[in-house]
Amino acid sequence: MNVIHDDCINALQKQENNSIDVCFIDPPYNTGNNTNKAIAYDRNEDYIKKNWKPFYSDWDTIPDYEQWCISWLGELRDKLKEDATVFICGSLHNIPDVAYALRKLDYYTIQWVQWCIPNAFPNLSMTKMINANQTIIWARKDKKHYYDKVAAKAYNNDKNLRDYWLLHQDHKKGRIVKRPSRYLKDFWLMNNDTTAGKLWKHPSKKPVALVERALDIALRKEDGVHVLDFFAGSGTTGIAVKELAAQYNINIECTLVDNKQEYIDMMKRRLDDSK
User: Fold this and answer.
1) From the CA atom positions of the chain, what is the Rg in Å?
2) Which DSSP category does 120 fall into?
3) How many other CB atoms are found less than 10 A from the CB of residue 226?
4) How is domain 2-114+137-145+205-273 classified at the CATH fold level?
5) What is the pLDDT of residues 91-147, one digit of tens each?
6) Which residues neighbour 187 within 8 Å (Cβ) at sequence distance 6 or greater?
7) Domain residue ranges in the chain
8) Which of 104, 126, 129, 252 is the most buried (most CB within 10 A)?
9) What are phi and psi of 88, to 5 degrees?
10) pLDDT attached to residue 92
């Protein structure tokens, strides 16, 4: 597990060409530059109403977001193997810019996945509906990509996945279990991981199961495959990689990059605790 403190562009420039099998990233959504306020709050709604404090996030404010996306997607392209893919998380604030950058750089969009969040954060202003979904764009750089049909079918009663995904939480173990369903599409139903959120605080931490499923369907199950996350935050991608490596008994190389030292320290502790 390679944990690197660096800017995403610098880190990408140091990666070898044609070395990455799957890239999973959750870039800043640029909410601080879009009159939307990121909110730090506890999961308890009564607590939120009494104590919530809106703030503009320094890490989530990028003046020319569209060009910034073009910059790191451009650097990433040569680092991906011929049949590699990239998963990019986003919301209404940034997905149009990400999609534009992908098209401009001649990436091919395979699918858009919708992550539905039943325990989404409340909208205290009551001026619009609760934002209870996020988008994950799955894209490739070339004419073909690797898709693990066996892994995909394991989530859907031995039938190929549709583009509607339903995930079931095993609350006792805190893990996702594979249960048969006839209606698995690009709509993934999954709660936020609130327990881990209290331990490993980050403004945009994703559930391990979300990352694990994406990697599972896109990663060859062989020693030496390489996963990259250059917006690594609290290290969720690293945890998902460790779980998949244990499940399939393979060695997966994983590179985690973040430009904030506090998150580097956090993910190192989290990865150590997961042993």
Assistant:
1) 18
2) P
3) 22
4) Rossmann fold (3.40.50)
5) 888 999 999 999 999 999 999 998 887 777 777 777 888 878 889 999 999 989 999
6) 113, 114, 116, 163, 164, 165, 166
7) 2-114+137-145+205-273
8) 252
9) -125, 115
10) 85
